[in-house]
Amino acid sequence: MEKSKYIWFDGNFVDWDSAQVNVMTHTLHYGTGVFEGIRARNTDQGVSIFRLDDHVDRLYASADSYHLKIPFEKNEIIEAIKEVVKINELDSAYIRPLIFFGEGEMGLLPNNVPVRVSIAAWYWGAYLGDDAVNRGVNVCISKWRRISPTSFIPLAKGVGGYMNSTLAKIDAVENGYDDAIMLGDDGTVAEGSGQNIFIVKEGNIYTPPNTTGALNGITRRTVIEISKNNNIPIDEKNLTVDDLKTADEVFFTGTATGVIGVVSIDGGNIADGQVGNVTSQIIDSYEDVVNAKDDNFKSYITLI
Ligand SMILES: Cc1ncc(COP(=O)(O)O)c(C=O)c1O
Predict the structure, then answer these.
(1) Average pLDDT in the 110-136 region?
(2) Would the CB of 276 count as within 6 Å of ligand 1?
């Protein structure tokens, strides 16, 4: 990780190495936190944060779902996110706001426990590697099912829930894959370990609905809009593993990942094992959108 100089912590900037917590921090014991992943990019118009309001809205929604009352107003968090990029003089950044229960009473009921907020920003390149966008990624169907909506709140980015994603990711990498696809409760496809998933079949794009346990990804939402703008039919639909393996194209989406072709599953190629044409078209459009080159999406750009 490329450390930056400062982290915003409970309202103030502190040196990166001073942004520390006590081992009795509630969230360290019980996973009781929520977070966001946001990107800033160096565009022709200046440094831009993509869909900042939407990310902050999801952060508040996640916090609400898990009973964390954020002790700052939304506009204060928005300003802090912009400031953390500026003060660290980053022109390209991954931004990680984290809301967590600090040190107070121990026990599952987080009474008399302060809610703490940190926002870090640092340079983080392509999550699945620099060449993934050209060569695509090789993935497996995970033996781990995506957290169930009957046990967790998959629509929220909850810290504890990510133990599930970590299990899937470690297992995939140990078996020689780049990443994993996780199935939901009913055995249909949910998403990747940290990405949403789409298939292309006979010119149509499909993605599983959020009822499968898939996160309501902001890149997912952007890709749905891009497809509609590009007149590519797109629909939400439950997908089987067979639908994936017999698709013309498969791709992942996510803030850290971007849009990346999935070229093989469980060792079997998807079509000819290359990143497909529709995926390439979506990648190009997505790059234009996030780099402030598409006026149709300029409301998603926050210049700082
Ligand atoms: C489990 C999971 N699914 C999907 C995504 C993609 O969501 P987004 O596009 O909002 O980054 C992420 C990344 O945040 C994730 O962690």
Answers:
(1) 93
(2) no
Say which range, 119-133, 134-148, 237-251, has the weakest mean pLDDT. 119-133
Residue with CA closest to ligand 1 atom 1: 194
User: In this predicted structure, what is the pLDDT of residue 10?
Assistant: 98
By annotation, the residues acting in catalysis are 157
Closest to 41 measured CA to CA, from 299, 296, 288, 297? 288
Residue 277 confidence class, pLDDT cut points 50, 70, 90? very high
Domain range 6-122, its CATH number among 3.40.190.10, 3.30.470.10, 1.20.200.10, 3.90.1150.10: 3.30.470.10
Phi, psi of 98 (to 5 degrees): -135, 130
Helices and strands, counts by H and E, the chain:
8, 17
Phi, psi of 248 (to 5 degrees): -75, -35
Write out the E strands in 33-148. 33-35, 38-43, 46-50, 93-101, 115-122, 137-141
CA 67 to centroid of ligand 1, rounded, Å: 21
Q: How many CB atoms lie within 10 A of CB 277?
A: 11
CA 2 to chain centre: 19
Residue 155 has pLDDT above 90, yes or no: yes
- Domain 132-290 matching CATH 3.20.10.10: the answer reads yes
Task: For residue 196, give the ligand 1 atom closest to its CA.
Answer: 4
Bridge partners of 123? 2
